[in-house]
Amino acid sequence: MYISWKERVKNRFSKYPKVWSALQWLKTVMYVFNYLRYYGFGIRSKSGSIREINVEFCSACNLRCKFCALDHLKPKQHISPKVLEKVLMELYTNPLFKNVEVLNLYNGGETLLHPNRLELFELIAHHKQSALKQGKRFPKVLLLTNGMLLRESLAKSILELNVLDVIQFSLDGGTKEKFEELRVNAKWKKFYSNVSDLIQLKNELQPNLQIKSITIVEEPNDLSVDWMDEEFRGLIDRMDSFELRRLHDWGGEIELNDNKQKNKYKLGCNMAMHQLVVLPNGDVTVCCNDLNSKGVIGNVQEQSMGEIYSSKERRHYLDKLLFGKRDEIELCKGCQSF
């Protein structure tokens, strides 16, 4: 599957600059192939190109990470069950979305800040079971969280719903001190306790749940765990899998001051091709790098997800990217993450 293949390739080859550069070029080839497959020659495939859909429960965040582009002054919004249900229904009833592999519960805000989060998890569980009873596939459900609100009682309530397939944590820095420096307002002791309790509960209540982490590693530290604090490394070792990353630019919103990050391949974007993001007010944007709603192409309270997928607003992005006109798109012109 596309998502698992992408993760394996990234984990295997991102440490090798020459190989990674060649793979970046290959991504442009795949973009052209998929454009022609799904949108070219006036023939539209019965299935769609979307492989992952992100749903943001809450637009606010309790942290102030130094490398994050989220605008904390924008209005704070929470998704309603009505908006979420519209998205969930189309996941397994609309053929355009039959290739969706993952439902990601995150975007810029912290999912667990939603005051009715358990009600929303129950709604997802209902639709997941409904799809399975009809013999239809339902995407894997992935929650990305900063972990600060995932106290033991909440974790137990979530696991008892058996709705999540993956819980993924942002576990940045490599040391306890760097973790708190990068993730402002986060406290290592509380984070460590919450994640440790979750791992124990998982073993008791939902052993098939995957627990993963993403760790931002600043240069000049190696993309390895060898140099990290013993306790930090020990927590990573207890994960089912982990990913080490360098800082990225959030669609050009963050200045990295690193010429090596400059992308020489300007054709296409597989994130725009394979992803849609639903925001709390129902707005849909083209990319998870768009933390501040620059790339809105429709609203699920006014249109179906299928109509948004096929809209001229979305095709505007795909067409510009196909012909190397990235610089003409406000959202994409500074992005190095495609």
Explain this structure to me?
- By secondary structure, the protein is of the alpha/beta class.
- The protein contains eleven helices and nine strands.
- It has helices at 2-13, 17-39, 81-93, 117-133, 152-161, 176-182, 188-205, 230-237, 270-274, 305-309, 312-322, and strands at residues 52-55, 102-105, 140-145, 166-170, 210-216, 241-245, 275-278, 283-285, 296-299.
- Strands 6-5-4-3-2-1-7-8-9 form a nine-stranded mixed sheet.
- β1 (52-55), α3 (81-93) and β2 form a beta-alpha-beta unit.
- The longest helix is centred in the N-terminal third of the chain and has 23 residues, at 17-39.
- It is globular, with a radius of gyration of 20 Å.
- 35% of the residues are buried.
- The mean pLDDT is 89.
Tell me about the largest β-sheet. Answer: 9 strands, mixed
In DSSP terms (H or I, runs of 4 or more residues), the helix count works out at 11
Radius of gyration: 20 Å
Sheet with most strands: strand arrangement: 6-5-4-3-2-1-7-8-9
Termini separation (Å)? 19 Å
Strand content: 5-15%
Helix content, binned percent: 25-40%
Q: Based on DSSP secondary structure assignment, what is the total number of beta strands?
A: 9
Oligomeric description of these chains:
single chain
Structural class assignment: alpha/beta
SSE arrangement, N to C: HHEHEHEHEHHEHEHEEEHH
Mean pLDDT: 89
Shape: globular
Low-confidence runs: none
